[in-house]
Design brief:
alpha/beta; Rossmann fold
């Protein structure tokens, strides 16, 4: 089974280095152009289905890429970005990204999901997609933070598990492949 991970195109908050989380910010002009470039890069990929976060920046990216495919887009709430709670709408320079994404520490912040909660929902989602769509070519339109769980699902946790080191550029398709009969993956306890 083949998966393509595509982080949404740029938003004004990305450009200003402001934490978005579940705040629903639309693509800016650069983001729309990035999504169009991703569409062109993926035009020959034999996509069967697209799963998208319900947040507008990811869903709009999926719609633009789908102009070359015309396949179903399924809104999947489990692909939304991490809820950053008290860190939403603050500058990247203020929020403690390394600690916030430390899997062992599993930092609890008012109103925010823990990193383990994010991993659990993303892993469950990927297991469900694999079970329901074996052998298909699937695109996931989602977010940079939540995409860290996708990387770890397919490639394992990085050495020393520095989650903050996993970075997904805006609207750059990333390919993952997994055997249909590979066992379900569970996050580390």
């Amino acid at each position: 089974m083949i998966f393509y991970l595509v982080r949404h195109g740029q938003t004004d908050w990305n450009a200003r280095e402001i934490v978005q989380g579940v705040t629903d910010i639309p693509l800016n002009g650069t983001g729309l152009a990035q999504a169009a470039r991703a569409r062109d890069l993926m035009k020959d990929v034999p996509l069967d289905i697209i799963f998208s976060s319900p947040l507008v920046r990811a869903y709009r990216t999926a719609e633009i890429i789908n102009e070359a495919h015309g396949v179903p887009i399924i809104t999947e709430p489990r692909l939304r970005e991490r809820n950053y709670g008290a860190f939403e709408a603050v500058s990247y320079s203020v929020y403690p990204g390394v600690e916030f994404w430390d899997y062992e520490r599993n930092m609890k912040v008012e109103g925010a999901e823990t990193v383990r909660e994010v991993f659990a929902r993303i892993y469950e989602c990927l297991d469900d997609i694999r079970r329901e769509y074996p052998g298909k070519c699937v695109m996931l339109a989602m977010h940079g933070g939540a995409a860290r769980a996708v990387y770890c699902y397919f490639r394992g946790f990085p050495e020393g598990r520095p989650m903050k080191s996993i970075f997904t550029p805006n609207a750059e398709p990333i390919r993952f492949e997994i055997a249909d009969d590979a066992p379900a993956v569970t996050p580390l306890p």
